[in-house]
Amino acid sequence: MRLLLSSLLFGACGGLGVLGMLTMAAQAPSSITIRAGRLLDGRGGSQQNVVVTVRDGKIASVGKSGGAVTHDLSKYTLLPGFIDTHVHILWHFGPDGRYVAGREPPETRLQAGVENARETVRHGFTTVQSVGETLDAELRSKLEKEQLPGPRIFTSVGQINERSGAARGAGGGGGSGGAATPDQLRTAVRALKDAGADLIKIFASASIRDGGKQTMTDEQLQAACGEAKALGLRTLVHAHSPESIKASVLAGCTQIEHGNFATDEVLKLMAEKGTYFDPNVGVVLQNYLENKAKFLGIGNYNEEGFAAMERSIPLVIDMFKRALKTPGLKIVYGTDAVAGAHGRNIEEAVVRVQKGGQKPMDAIVSLTSRSAEAMRMSDTIGAVATGLHADLVAVDGDPLADITALRKVMFVMKDGAVVR
Ligand SMILES: [Zn+2]
């Protein structure tokens, strides 16, 4: 009996082996070659007339060679896939044209996410970080399973604030109780990790529409960012007021979002502590104002809130100029793209250069390798270099001469597959 069983097993394995070999033969790795008129490698390097070879979804070589290529992009500039470290990929307008503040069937929300994901990747963004809701992870699975076009998605799954964990059903969100104790916050952070969070999103201050004052105590921030650090997770902290930024940096949080009221003192503190800074100066406020009628009357999207956002636009440009002058400050790329902004993520770079005075090459490095570094992914994304994922974007024109060339996306490849 035992003998019979083992021979049956052997037979089954033998059969699979042949099938496996056949499958491998059908998927034999073949090279894709791309010729670019100009290459900006994402790390500050620039070359003319380059051929990039892609194999198994990775960049196999970057060099010069003649002859026929798979994709002749010699009229264009080739760059690494763009990275947006702060989006809300599921936010959208409903059939009535108004902002949908969460109350809808999950299938409807996922379908909106599919469309946002397609728009995002078609405009060159091959990686995004969504900060974030539970459905983000479902959207990621859906895109993978149904092979739909979209960026690589990382998500915080939920968000931590001063009440997280204090209410019943700890973790993943607001909670309706009073202030959370440090222990409750640590538990909430662990619950998010267990739910699959790639990073932790924390609210250290109020929204810009409510004045941006510090909302979590220094002790609460130390608990939340400390626990995340112990778990090996990065922390993205929404912070507008200088006090909230300072407290977050000193608590060891890894990245500050927005920073609308950042003073020179806290900009310097971020630089000293190596905290990444993601100022959102070109998309989020402008998009809210352009779509005012679609948000107005929902939550804190009231006249006062819109007036506060309008006042903020020149202030954040001034803050960004001071950030650029802060030696050693590591500025990453993030838009805070919400409903109406998906697919227009590159406008942040245009504003940073045209209104903020950032050098185009620095804006491009921020958009690619610097953001990859902040995500601890320098060895996989953010540059056109051997061994990295073949995430490539070709644009019409020279973005070093005119940053708006980044709007003219002619070709997108993600993981070696052509998306556009
Ligand atoms: Zn946001």
What does this structure look like?
This protein is globular. Helix 8 runs antiparallel to helix 10. It is α/β, with parallel strands linked by helices and 420 residues long. Strand 9, helix 5 and strand 10 form a beta-alpha-beta unit. It has helices at 2-26, 106-122, 134-145, 182-194, 218-230, 242-250, 264-273, 284-290, 292-295, 303-324, 347-354, 360-374, and strands at 32-40, 46-55, 58-63, 71-80, 82-87, 125-130, 152-155, 159-160, 199-203, 234-239, 255-258, 276-278, 392-395, 409-414, 417-418. It has a seven-stranded mixed sheet with strand order 3-2-1-4-13-14-15. A five-stranded parallel sheet has the order 8-9-10-11-12, covered by helices on one side. It starts with a helix and ends with a strand. 37% of the residues lie in helices and 20% in strands. The structure holds zinc ion.
| Sequence of strands across the biggest β-sheet | 3-2-1-4-13-14-15
Helix-strand sequence: HEEEEEHEHEEHEHEHEHEHHHHHEEE
Q: In total, how many beta strands?
A: 15
* Terminal-residue CA separation: 58 Å
The radius of gyration is 23 Å
β-strand percent reads: 15-25%
Largest sheet: 7 strands, mixed
Oligomer: single chain
Query: What global shape is seen?
Result: globular
Bound small molecules, deduplicated: zinc ion
Instruction: Find the structural class using helix and strand composition.
Output: alpha/beta
Q: Mean pLDDT across all residues, rounded?
A: 92
Helix content: 25-40%
- Count of DSSP-assigned helices: 12
Stretches where pLDDT is under 50 for at least 5 consecutive residues are: 1-28, 169-175
